[in-house]
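User: Let's play a game. I give you a shape written as tokens, and you guess the letters that built it. Ready? Here's round one.
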């Protein structure tokens, strides 16, 4: 995962703001992003909480998380 890209996206947000992250935004392939996104849904991430239903895309017959809506922690 491109930790610097994630930190830059989070830093641009105001506390309590909803924002979206995707595999493309973090320079990740879909499979790796799906695995990371599932961890964030279960445990939340560094500086944010997941919200809503993850947007999924079918790739090779599998539903993979393509993007997540997050809320920046205050």
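Assistant: Ready! My guess for every position:
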């Amino acid at each position: 995962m491109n930790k610097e890209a994630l930190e830059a996206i989070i830093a641009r947000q105001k506390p309590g703001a909803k924002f979206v992250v995707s595999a493309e935004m973090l320079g990740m392939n879909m499979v790796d992003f799906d695995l990371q996104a599932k961890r964030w849904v279960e445990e939340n991430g560094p500086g944010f909480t997941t919200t809503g239903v993850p947007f999924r895309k079918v790739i090779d017959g599998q539903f993979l998380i393509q993007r997540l809506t997050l809320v920046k922690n205050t």
